[in-house]
């Protein structure tokens, strides 16, 4: 039934969109398969690079938080289990998250591989992910480590200010407003996101160093980690990423 309803829906898709998608898929068919993990502390630039990598290599972007929310709203069997855990205020189990990734990987958009962002955060999660991939006859090809000094991150993140109604962002050092604390266009006050304060960043960095840095060590032993100098400007980091993925 699903294929019939999908076919009916395709009739309503404009020809330009259909042709664009067909051309994209043809171009993608020549690309090598890639299964990538992005690891780095908050503010290290993963969010800037992942859409570029996704488009360059025709991969799907698997952000575990988004996938959990999607599974819960779609009421998939795993989504129902995840919701039960969340409603009790418990953490969703590693096995459930790996199961949701396993499900997502079967989508046509993930045919050439995936970018995993936000998972694995612990060595146990990395082991469970490897086991699931092995069962599928696959493995992680490359782990991109967005290496950056904590002090640089603090400057990057705690300097961010936002104009709430428009979403315009400023930075006290890199892109300051004309008048400190006010939006250039409306003159309204700027705010700082709750997550962008030094105290929140400190606790997130502590969690990253304690839990996630060992994951880099785990994958380093397999010889698949590429260390990126994430303090560089985004365009230079993109070049580093392309070099790492072409080797």
TrEMBL record:
InterPro entries: Adenyl_kin_sub, Adenylat/UMP-CMP_kin, Adenylat_kinase_CS, Adenylate_kinase_lid-dom, P-loop_NTPase. The keyword Nucleotide-binding applies. SUPFAM superfamilies: P-loop containing nucleoside triphosphate hydrolases (SSF52540). Residues 160-195 form the Adenylate kinase active site lid domain. It catalyses: AMP + ATP = 2 ADP. It is an enzyme of class 2 (transferase). Its EC number is 2.7.4.3. It comes from the Eukaryota. It holds the Pfam family ADK_lid. One of its GO terms (molecular function) is ATP binding. Keywords: Kinase, Nucleotide-binding, Transferase. PROSITE patterns: ADENYLATE_KINASE. The keyword Kinase applies. Monomer. Belongs to the adenylate kinase family. Catalyzes the reversible transfer of the terminal phosphate group between ATP and AMP. Plays an important role in cellular energy homeostasis and in adenine nucleotide metabolism. HAMAP family: Adenylate_kinase_Adk. This is adenylate kinase. The lineage of its organism: Eukaryota, Viridiplantae, Streptophyta, Embryophyta, Tracheophyta.
